[in-house]
């Protein structure tokens, strides 16, 4: 074989390799093009430097409603609302993409049929080898459903908050106004019982006694309601030392602790962001309950501790009192719900409802683990 024919053979071989490489490149490009065209959840399109549309995929057709033949060659400003176009939002987006390489934007866009959809758009500048911007890649995601769900949930929360504050106001006014006539009944009954003492028969005296007792109880219930509606009016304090609050509570409950001979062990408590007055009431209610629902024939121990978890501080108030049947573990946190008659244990059934509301104010929750006859463990979380 002479040199010439060897050279020709090499040339033919190189040409074959080149053809194969071109074919592979075309296939890769076609695959890529097909892949982009097939994507249905995102509108992926190329635009020239002025924002004129160069290609269209299925996602774009689904989201914006135009077919490729209707839209290719048109300007992307078409997708913006009249208001956005008047304030030059599309131009500003292209400008930012040129300046920063990429820009993101969320807002209402217009479909072919005029309907609006909420879109999240990313526009990325495409550069040539000299670093000049030659066009843009625009990716749009339709977030209308998410946006509407968020909007609905926001409106629902707003409505709930309004209803809640109306209800609190109503409770406050009702309980405040109820106290006045009750005071009159109470003082009139007292006057009758003093001024007519001995002049009425025994049955009348007994009835009067019951009237005064009932008035007294109703007054306690109304006071509980008033306190309940007043909760949460205070300000959040970023640095509340729970140890200091606990000391005050124990000092306030000193005589009850002494009378019941209770032993109260308190471990180191945290400093956290909280409503101090409400936190004091929470501690106070749980300790008073432990004292009230103790076993009369056994030394009462109350152990109080707190530990930090992923959800926030979990507090534990443990006692060895009479315990609670687990069937009632939710019921006891409802307002005016009690498990005993008032002759067995004094109370209004509002203490734990207070606790629940206070813990909710701290974005937490409260629950109880208990074995009847063995004691109860009250837990609550204060989110931090
Ligand atoms: P009250 O103490 O006025 O009855 P609460 O709302 O504080 O109202 O408590 C509701 C009920 O939960 C109580 O009546 C009692 O049956 C039960 N309870 C609360 N704390 C304890 C406790 N530490 N041990 C046993 N039972 C308890």
From TrEMBL:
InterPro entries: HATPase_C_sf, HATPase_dom, His_kinase_dom, HisK_dim/P_dom, HisK_dim/P_sf, PAC, PAS, PAS-assoc_C. It comes from the Bacteria. Residues 4-38 form a coiled coil. Residues 28-101 form the PAS domain. GO terms for molecular function: phosphorelay sensor kinase activity. Residues 173-384 form the Histidine kinase domain. It catalyses: ATP + protein L-histidine = ADP + protein N-phospho-L-histidine. Residues 103-155 form the PAC domain. Pfam families: HATPase_c, HisKA, PAS_9. Its EC number is 2.7.13.3. Keywords: Coiled coil, Kinase, Phosphoprotein, Transferase. Gene3D superfamilies: 1.10.287.130, Histidine kinase-like ATPase, C-terminal domain, PAS domain. Transmembrane segments: none annotated. This is histidine kinase. It comes from Chitinophaga pinensis (strain ATCC 43595 / DSM 2588 / LMG 13176 / NBRC 15968 / NCIMB 11800 / UQM 2034).
């Amino acid at each position: 074989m002479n040199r010439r024919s060897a050279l020709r053979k090499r040339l033919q071989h190189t040409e074959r390799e080149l053809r194969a490489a071109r074919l592979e490149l075309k296939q890769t490009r076609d695959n890529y093009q097909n892949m982009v065209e097939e994507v249905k959840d995102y509108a992926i399109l190329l635009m020239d430097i002025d924002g004129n549309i160069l290609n269209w995929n299925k996602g774009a057709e689904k989201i914006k409603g135009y077919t490729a033949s209707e839209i290719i060659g048109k300007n992307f400003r078409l997708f913006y609302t009249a208001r956005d176009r008047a304030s030059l939002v599309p131009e500003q987006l292209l400008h930012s993409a040129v300046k920063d390489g990429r820009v993101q934007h969320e807002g209402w866009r217009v479909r072919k049929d005029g309907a609006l959809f909420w879109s999240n758009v990313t526009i990325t500048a495409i550069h040539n080898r000299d670093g000049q911007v030659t066009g843009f890649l625009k990716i749009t995601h339709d977030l209308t459903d998410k946006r509407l769900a968020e909007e609905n949930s926001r409106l629902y929360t707003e409505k709930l908050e309004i209803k809640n504050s109306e209800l609190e106001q109503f409770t406050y006014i009702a309980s405040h106004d109820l106290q006045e006539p009750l005071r009159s009944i109470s003082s009139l009954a007292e006057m009758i019982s003093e001024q007519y003492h001995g002049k009425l028969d025994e049955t009348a005296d007994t009835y009067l006694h019951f009237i005064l007792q009932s008035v007294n109880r109703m007054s306690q219930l109304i006071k509980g309601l008033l306190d309940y509606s007043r909760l949460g009016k205070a300000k959040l304090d970023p640095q509340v030392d729970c140890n200091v609050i606990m000391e005050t509570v124990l000092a306030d409950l000193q005589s009850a602790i002494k009378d019941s001979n209770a032993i109260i062990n308190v471990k180191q408590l945290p400093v956290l962001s909280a409503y101090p007055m409400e936190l004091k009431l929470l501690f106070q209610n749980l300790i008073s309950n432990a004292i009230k629902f103790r076993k009369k024939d056994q030394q009462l121990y109350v152990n109080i501790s707190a530990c930090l978890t992923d959800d926030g501080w979990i507090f534990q108030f443990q006692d060895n009192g009479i315990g609670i049947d687990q069937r009632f573990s939710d019921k006891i946190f409802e307002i005016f719900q009690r498990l005993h008659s008032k002759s067995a244990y004094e109370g209004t059934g509002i203490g734990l409802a207070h606790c629940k509301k206070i813990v909710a104010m701290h974005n937490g929750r409260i629950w109880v683990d208990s074995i009847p006859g063995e004691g109860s463990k009250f837990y609550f979380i204060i989110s931090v």
